[in-house]
Amino acid sequence: MTQQPTVRRTPLNAEERARSEANFAPLVAEHLATSGRFRVSADTPELVELFQAVARRVGEMLQRPVVSYSNGRYMVITFAPGGHTPGLTGESAPSAQR
Length: 98
Description:
16% strand, alpha+beta, three-stranded antiparallel β-sheet, 2 helices, disordered C terminus
């Protein structure tokens, strides 16, 4: 019986992380726009952190609230429930009464 070698992942350096965020954001935004959610394998804290940053960037790109959920194995990025924000759909925000 042979033992499987342990997988050791090399952490991303700052440049790789920045490029990853920039390159994943359009892909995730496209999936959200077409299907409403994006699921990815994110089984390390580093990947969870990376895709949380991607989710924030996508929310800014689409100008809609975006949330991410992780269970330690997968991460799902989707639009926030009740994510309707006044002003983003041409409606005016309620005015403050004095």
